[in-house]
Amino acid sequence: MSQINFRILGGVLLGIFFVTFILAHRSSRSLEAKMTSLPKQSQSMAAKPKSKAYLSPSPLVTRSDNGDIVTTVVLSPSMSPLSPTINVTPVPTPHVSPSTLPTLLPIPSQSPSPTVTTPPLSPSPSVPRVVINEIAWMGTESSANDEWIELYNDSGYAVKLTGWMLKALDGSPSISLEGTIQAHGYYLIERTDDTTVLDVSADLVSAFGHGLSNAGENLILIDNHNEIMDQVDCSGGWFAGDNTSKSSMERKSAESLGGASGNWVTNNGTLKNGHDQAGNTIGGTPKQSNSISG
User: Fold this and answer.
1) In angstroms, rounded to a whole number, what is the distance separating the alpha carbons of residues 175 and 189?
2) Which residues of 181-193 are buried (b: 16+ CB within 10 A; e: fewer)?
3) Vertex 93, ends 91 and 97: CA angle to 5°?
4) Which residues fall within 8 angstroms of residue 256, CB to CB, at 6 or more apart?
5) For residue range 217-230, what is the model confidence (pLDDT) as tens digits?
6) Phi-psi region of 226 (alpha: psi -120 to 50; beta: other; left: phi over 0)
7) Contact 249, 240 (CB under 8 A)
8) pLDDT tens digits along 142-162
9) Residues 17, 11: contact at Cβ < 8 Å?
10) Secondary structure letter of residue 221 according to DSSP
11) What is the largest CA-CA distance in the chain?
12) Contact of 136 with 284, CB cutoff 8 Å
């Protein structure tokens, strides 16, 4: 009975041996095929991440010297592709401190532009402010040498006349002015002494050089900046005035140019002011509004 069992057991083991041998042979051939195809796979996987080989167990059945059947597990390499490993370098998050942030300045609100007030222009030759206003080139009934000239301030402020000049183009008279002429006021210049107009005080007494020519003069008023403020060019003859009646030459408008002949008239004989040394009425209006105005 024990012999029969031994034979059966031996047959079973022999069958297992053959099955194991066949499986091992197939596994060996499969491994050879895989190893043969490795160069091709290496070429095709050149651009791919490398794979790691893992060992898988393959059974191997052998017989020992005493006739016992020994099953040995042989580790055979097998290819197991792994997903490519991607090394991700973390990007540091920049630290922004409050000091590095730009400071936003408030946008100034737009306010209306301030109104620019233009100061009044200084007197000029084209628009005279202090002007030659009246000329008694013929003198008075008392004396032909008692000549006088009146200036007028057409501005709303007093004007200091120190440094100003009133002169004829031929050089005589040449009068240096001084003092102040008040706003809308008059400035009387008398020749030789203050008795030319007896009852009206002069603002300035001057020699007048050789005096005013009865044939005419070109009179120029110059300020302390050597700018011409007014000019009355009567070098070709006086625009107005009468030597017989001793009536003065009066300006009609301070706003009009002194060189315009139409801006001058002879005293009308109705409006007069003051007296000469002999007590005769002056044929003009010294330091008073002219008899005819424009």
Assistant:
1) 9
2) beeeebbbbbbee
3) 155
4) 263, 294
5) 999 999 999 999 99
6) left
7) yes
8) 999 999 999 999 999 999 999
9) no
10) E
11) 197
12) yes
Contacts of 76 (CB under 8 A, 6+ apart): 27, 31, 55, 56, 57, 58
Domain boundaries, the chain: 2-36+52-80, 130-266
Strand, helix or coil at 152?
strand
- Spatial contact of 27 and 73, defined as CB atoms under 8 Å apart: no
CA distances (Å), 290 to each of 129, 170, 187, 239, 252, in order? 17, 28, 14, 16, 8
Dig out the tokens for 46 from the structure.
């050149």
Gyration radius of the chain's alpha carbons? 66
Give DSSP secondary structure letters for 82-123. Answer: -PPP---PPPPPPP--GGGSPPPPPPPPP-PPPPPPPPPPPP
**Residue 22: CB partners within 8 Å, gap ≥ 6?**
none
**CATH architecture for the domain at 130-266:** Sandwich (2.60)
Q: Rounding to the nearest 10 degrees, give the CA dihedral for residues 241, 285, 231, 265.
A: -40
- Kindly list the averaged pLDDT for each block of 10 residues, start to end, along the chain of length 294: 66 75 69 56 47 45 52 46 50 54 55 48 54 98 97 96 96 96 97 94 95 97 96 97 97 95 96 96 97 80
CA-wise closest residue to 156 among 188, 121, 186, 183: 183
Measured CA to CA, the distance from residue 169 to residue 231 in angstroms comes to: 10
d(CA 56, CA 54): 7
Strand pairing of 186-191 and 204-206? parallel
Q: Which amino acid is at 74?
A: V
Through-space distance between the first and last CA atoms of the chain, rounded to whole angstroms: 172
Instruction: Report how far residue 275's alpha carbon sits from residue 284's, in angstroms, rounded to the nearest whole number.
Output: 10
pTM score of the predicted model: 0.58
